[in-house]
Amino acid sequence: MSDQLPRFNGVERVLHWTTATLVLIAAFTGMTLYMGPLSGLIGRRILVKDIHVISGLAMPVPLLLSYAGRWRDSVRPDVRRLARWTKADRFWLRTLGRTGPHQVGKFNAGQKANSAFIVGMIPVMVATGSVMRWFEPFPLSWRTGATFAHDWTAIAVWIIVAGHILVATSKPPALRSIITGRIDAAWAHAHHPLWVEGEDEVGNEPHQDRTTSAPVAVATTGSEDPTR
Ligand code: HEM
Q1: What is the tens place of the pLDDT at every residue in 71-116?
Q2: Which residues line ligand 1 (CB under 6 A)?
Q3: Is 4-221 assigned to CATH 1.20.950.20?
Q4: What pTM was computed for the model?
Q5: What are phi and psi of 183, to 5 degrees?
Q6: Where are the domains of the chain?
Q7: pLDDT per residue as tens digits for the range 126-185
Q8: DSSP state of 80
């Protein structure tokens, strides 16, 4: 068997898969509510709507829980990596992926953009969905605006989640790493070299959690990403 490196700890994997499950349920039930023929095929509209609202309202819970108490330290380093945009990442977005893999840390710009979208869409959907569900106190213009924003964000969710699944299934080592927590070392060297070389460390955080940090060298001064 090929060499493996630790990439995601248990808290991160549970966070990923619980959020993914809730988003998929909300996205699928939302599609059923939106598309007449699908709604007719499945029926039980009131039940579908209840499942939709409950899964939708639950979407932020794993993220909030993972930031509570002792779990916080398990996710924070990777959350900060995801939030840190390097020059190379911005170039990647502008040129739609032409940046060389030698510029990539633990996450590439696509993974960063995807997680930013998910974290941003959750409050939008919870707020607009709540206005749609508990609409009585709101004027008509609010309800119309909420439905408009909910529908267009839903379309973006369907496209981006489908894209995320397509990319993930086309990269088996990356997909395996979010299932098992470990990544093929050769793959990591080729696709996430800055991380493997210890150049994607986070801030001045202590380097005690080996499962969320770079597996090799540790940057002692700590903070700066060389591609910035
Ligand atoms: C990934 C997240 C979500 C997606 C993709 C999504 C998508 C959708 C879509 C496409 C519709 C149909 C709208 C229409 O018929 O014009 C809908 C309806 C609705 N959504 Fe969501 N939604 C999400 C999250 C939420 C959340 C968090 C809530 C919170 C309460 C919510 C509450 C509702 C309500 C109340 C309706 C109206 C159902 C009806 O009366 O037919 N949704 N959603």
Answers
A1: 899 999 999 999 999 888 888 778 877 766 678 899 999 999 999 9
A2: 23, 26-27, 30, 33-34, 49, 52-53, 56-57, 59, 125-126, 129-130, 132-133, 147, 150-151, 154, 157
A3: yes
A4: 0.86
A5: -125, 145
A6: 4-221
A7: 999 999 999 999 999 999 999 999 999 999 999 999 999 999 999 999 999 999 999 999
A8: H
